Amino acid sequence: MPHANALYGPLDPAPDAGYVDAPPRMGFFTDTSVCIGCKACEVACKEWNLVPESGLDLLGMSYDNTGALTANSWRHVAFVEQPRSTGQEIPAFEGQPDGPSVSPATAAVGARTSSDTGTDPGLPPGSPAAATRMSAGPEFLGMPGAQPPGRGSGAQGRTDFRWLMMSDVCKHCTHAACLDVCPTGSLFRTEFGTVVVQEDICNGCGYCISACPYGVIDQRKGDGRAWKCTLCYDRLGAGMTPACAQACPTESIQYGPLEELRERAAARVETLHERGVPEARLYGEDPNDGVGGDAAFFLLLDEPEVYGLPPDPIVTTRDLPAMWKRAGLAAMTMAAVTVVAFLGRRP
Amino acid sequence: MTDTTSSDGHRRRGRGGDGEQLTVPPADFSSYYGRPVLKPPVWKHDIAGYLFTGGLAAGGALIGAGAQVTGRPELRTVGRWTALGGVTASTYLLVHDLGRPDRFHHMLRVAKLTSPMSVGTWILAAFGPLAGVAAVAELAPLLPQHGVLGLARRLAPPVGHAAGLAAAAVAPALATYTGVLLADTAVPSWHDAYPSLPFVFAGSALAAASGVGLIAAPATQTAPLRRLALAGATVEMVGGRRLERLGLTGEPYARGRSGRMITAGRVLLTVGTAAALVSRCSRLLAAIAGAALVASSVATRFGVFEAGRVSARDPKYTVVPQRERLDEKNGPAIRP
């Protein structure tokens, strides 16, 4: 008998998947407030998991040269520059020369750039109109200029600004759409509650790619199979920390039992609020959200969509019973009209 | 610390092609360099083609069975060959679209109700052989009268009849599960259309198969097809009437290349059905009507397929509806 929340709602996924005496659910807490954008996580992940190269050139999106999570990038460090203070009570650049370095036009250019990630769809171009608006409309700073911020613009044009940096990763959802829709059983739930692709099973049907509400999983060109973060399943089995968390120099990426991470994250948000950073909020930690909570969740300093995350994702299979009902109704209609058409009078 | 949401992002959107005012919010939203949140489907046009051929096969099997039961042998033959042709093309297209076609049989490792593709695999696995047996049984008259082959000649019709009826029993599932296949994704325009898609596909399947019958079967036996084309068109039109009215995520069904394909599908469907209804006395008109119905189905399937791809490529269709839902739940966003 499936669990009442088998498709939607709070659930402990490993026991639901049939594991007896499963170890505690493991996950990542990525605290973006201490991320310094060093990309050590990206490199460590590639080294440990033998992930192919995915393009090294900067994309015109600040210091981002990865662009998105792909089959060949299982961690992606996002960079956003905003004409705002860092949220501290005293603006970081008070009395200092700084200001717009470039125009929103460069953000539009950044949206169109691409890089051969060796994957499909990999890094599709964005919408330049949306890019110029980004999070702060026409004041968006865009790509860093050749000079330090504000040097070329004169004292009058100077404003405060901040950098948002976030290391994105597969969320290892409680209700993982990729796993639900996989027709080969290649995607499976591990005893740690994570979601992993078995590369010897995947036949590259691509269903998981359309099903993921976060745009994480992707297909490797030439190889044809789908790839994504495994939360270093091999390392977990040996009691080790995943490569990205191990390499993170600021503990922005924290690995541990999900229960403990949630407590730690709640305390961190409280600390930040006390220190005058009211915009600090958690993303993906709530077991009552549309995917039943993520095993990899984040502390963000702006709205999720600013970082390229969906603001309120819902696992598509929540509506699957309703979908099958509609299909059943349509099938019956189809059979009925055929009977009626053939029952009619012969000419 | 100011809220610097741009006002120039407000643009009037949502005038449908038919001049109807759609309530679509202004597309003023945040994004990461305008990049899509979702990965657009990696499915190639093989899958749009399969939506058509799979539907055609299902419709063909139903027509074959209807003709079999009501004693229309030529129409039965056409129906059965349509079913076999459709399902053969479908199998080819589905395997060809895989990243690793040599591993197509991995689909048969599991049966999962949560995966419409797995369900579809088993539907096809049941339908394909039945449609094959039914069609091949039509070759019985070519066999010699006597000997072992003569026995096969006598056995073929009853076996073909049983297989034809069984294929027809599976056919409605084959034609409609594809609606769930597309809807059970994060692709906004496909997911939000889940109540409509199975009906659109069911109607489109009947119209396409009726079209082939009108082209290939003798006029004396196509009376049911004219009624079936009308019924299919009605199911598709009524089932699909809400596609453009989904709000923002309905936009790709009304605008751009995908919108033009959907419109073309409807125009061809209307013309084809009308022509079919008056084609009793003209073989040429029946063939033209049939061609229009087949073309309509192709246009509709490619249009729906393309609409989904458009909606996954633009972050607007992902972010704006989710942001609205969230603001309704929690109140407006916290801005730094």
From TrEMBL, chain A:
It is found in: Cell envelope. Binds 4 [4Fe-4S] clusters per subunit. Its cofactor is [4Fe-4S] cluster. The chain crosses the membrane at residues 323-344. Keywords: 4Fe-4S, Iron, Iron-sulfur, Membrane, Metal-binding, Repeat, Transmembrane, Transmembrane helix. One of its GO terms (biological process) is cellular respiration. This is 4Fe-4S dicluster domain-containing protein. PANTHER family: FORMATE DEHYDROGENASE, NITRATE-INDUCIBLE, IRON-SULFUR SUBUNIT (PTHR43545). Its main location: other. GO terms for molecular function: 4 iron, 4 sulfur cluster binding; metal ion binding.
From TrEMBL, chain B:
The chain crosses the membrane at residues 47-69, 81-99, 119-143, 155-177, 197-217, 261-278, 284-304. The keyword Transmembrane applies. It is a multi-pass membrane protein. Belongs to the NrfD family. It is found in: Cell membrane. The keyword Transport does not apply. It comes from the Bacteria. GO terms for cellular component: plasma membrane. Keywords: Cell membrane, Membrane, Transmembrane, Transmembrane helix. InterPro entries: Electron_transfer_protein, NrfD-like. It holds the Pfam family NrfD. Residues 1-27 are annotated as: Disordered. This is Polysulfide reductase.
